[in-house]
Write a structure and sequence with these properties.
The radius of gyration is 22 Å and the shape is flat. The longest helix is centred in the middle third of the chain and has 21 residues. A hairpin with a 5-residue loop joins strand 2 and strand 3. The protein has a five-stranded parallel β-sheet with strand order 5-4-6-7-8, with helices on both faces. The C terminus is likely disordered. It is 55% helix and 11% strand. It starts with a helix and ends in a 6-residue tail after the last helix. The chain is an alpha/beta fold and 313 residues long.
Length: 313
């Protein structure tokens, strides 16, 4: 029976279904914490054993109870199982009090930002990214948190120092998420930037990470680039799609002109995605080619998913 339990026979999709962990989380946990060591099939596909699946289930339960993956990743099986049983017993003994709601889920990271505690904020976001997986983390934690920080800053409840600290921490965490999802040269390429004079790059970075979570190879150029430079980079990297983020358009007419230039110079086969809060105020020329306005990361991911067949991993 032990031999059967140790036989590597489950692909990553099956393991994700059986454990409740997304493939992104599985890959991050393997690379960063060495939680299990799947073998590779002749075609390069990860294969897991029953023992691997059991351990991953325990690790998921431990992190759901509030423990960081780093603190439990290397525990022996028996000790990990004991810890999970203790946490479950404590949960059942706790009076039901409603728990965390969407309205309160960002209270802890906002409190860390208010305290200018970058380490605590980064640890909180790292744990959320590992437990939730890249798509959920980006759409349900990182993006709403940055919107909340912006709202609090505009309301005068956060200073520029608070906003800069929070933005810097989110950028570091999202960059790590994106790096962990790095794809090979055969993956479709998505080039992301912001237009000239647009210094707010967190939206572009979130879009880049969302594309990486969908299996795209991301070329991230950062902030404030003229349309001509973006076109040149897209040609040099053979980009299959281009995305720009517009947060605060200083001149909507100028942004519209830059987008028109970008669309005109890109190959007709390369779709141009435009997102960000400021993009809602920009008029897009319907005759200029395939320019797609996306409202959020979920919509971007769905659009990218329709445009590329990503090889199974």
């Amino acid at each position: 029976m032990d031999d059967v339990n140790q036989e590597a026979r489950h692909p990553i999709g099956v393991v994700a279904e059986r454990t409740g962990l997304s493939p992104e989380v599985l890959r991050v946990w393997e690379r960063r914490y060495d939680v299990v060591r799947p073998v590779r099939s002749e075609g390069g596909q990860r294969l897991y054993s029953d023992d691997d699946v059991g351990r991953l289930r325990l690790l998921r339960q431990a992190t759901q109870a509030g423990r960081s993956i780093g603190s439990v990743a290397q525990l022996p099986h028996d000790e990990l199982a004991r810890l999970v049983r203790e946490d479950e017993a404590a949960r059942l003994a706790r009076p039901a009090d409603g728990g965390e709601t969407p309205a309160t889920a960002l209270d802890a990271p906002l409190a860390h930002a208010l305290a200018l505690d970058a380490d605590a904020l980064e640890a909180h976001l790292d744990r959320a990214a590992a437990v939730l997986g890249a798509p959920v983390f980006l759409e349900r934690v990182a993006a709403p948190f940055m919107r909340l920080v912006g709202d609090e800053w505009h309301a005068g409840r956060l200073t520029p120092a608070h906003e800069h600290l929070a933005t810097g921490v989110v950028q570091r965490v999202v960059l790590r998420v994106m790096t962990a999802l790095r794809e090979g040269a055969d993956a479709p390429a998505f080039l992301v930037a912001t237009l000239v004079d647009e210094r707010h790059e967190i939206g572009a970075l979130l879009a880049a990470a969302a594309a990486a979570a969908e299996g795209w190879r991301v070329i991230y150029l950062g902030a404030s680039l003229p349309a001509a430079e973006i076109v040149a980079a897209a040609a040099a990297t053979a980009a299959d799609a281009v995305g720009v983020s517009v947060v605060v358009p200083g001149s909507p007419a100028r942004v519209a002109a830059e987008l028109a230039t970008l669309r005109a110079r890109l190959p007709a086969s390369v779709p141009l995605f435009v997102g960000g809060a400021g993009a809602r105020t920009i008029e897009l020329d319907p005759a200029a080619g395939e320019t797609i306005r996306v409202r959020d990361l979920d919509e971007l991911r769905e659009a990218l998913r329709r445009r590329a067949t990503i090889p199974a991993r």
